[in-house]
Input
Amino acid sequence: MLAFILRRLGVMALTALALTFVVFFMTNLPPSLDKLAKSEASFRMSDEDVASWLDANGFSRPLIVRYGEWLGVAPGWTHQAEDGTLTGRCYAAVPRGEEPPRFCGVVQGFWGQSTVFKQPVSEVLARSLGLTGWLMFWVMAVMVPTSLVLGVLSGMREGSRLDRTLSTFSITSTATPEYVSGVILIVLLGSATAGLSPLLAEWGWIEGRTLFQGTATSAMDDITFWNFGLPVLTIALYGIGYIARMTRASMTEVMTQQYIRTARLKGVSFPMIILRHALRNALIAPFTVIMLQFPWLLNGVVIVETLFNYKGFGWTLVQAAGNNDIQLLLGCSVIAVLVVLVTQLISDIGYVFLNPRIRLG
Output
């Protein structure tokens, strides 16, 4: 097991290097750098002024050198102005007046300076990931138990009326993207002029004008059921259908195995067959799907956080992409790559505990 984990960690490191280099190359293309120079200095800059600004800010050197500086394995760039003032990448990593280090990159914990938020990228990402972490936690708390229960109930008796009903619900929720279900939920439950809220307010069943809040901005300070319910439900609905369908397919296959028939012939009760014999084997395939929800959630929250004005990781990514914030885009890419690789490692390790035959193989 230890050798397997070490091999996977080595592959993860190489994969992370390759993917981050691709993102670094894409975000440092000449058009992006020209746009960055004009947005930071002046949109009326001439080509000569743009070249001078890029040289003064460390963007004129070879790409591989700048990637090494950003990574922290090459010394950070420095520039001396005409008046003798020294500037450079590592000067932004320490308070003014202190001697800057020679290396200052991701390895050393310095992710660069955000041109949009005027703060270190690490601070921006820490704040946004904290908000998205709460969103992901409540989505998983709702999505995983609900989808597993629906999938197991549907797969226990294939072809029954309950199976057809739950399968229809799963397919419908999976086929509805977040930007559609989010708008529908806002209209039905979070609008003061349409949906159920005007009726409930007229009947005196709710105190405010809406049952749920159509925005999650207030949830950044204080999470409540009423300001956080719609974004959580919007994301969870899509994942519930997908995981439930996978669980149903796995449960249906397990229920046809010979050892299940043998347990029935021995007179074991049906609930005991499900809990003791079928459930563990049926969870192997859904376990992978559940682990893949974490990187999917980082992408899925982009739409939901923008729709509900919740300033988490997805909202930050949209702001960075829309404003050509290269350093923040690179930081977001590192987070996304790490989440994907770590969840895949946990998924592989979880296979061993769910199915001991994989360990023997």
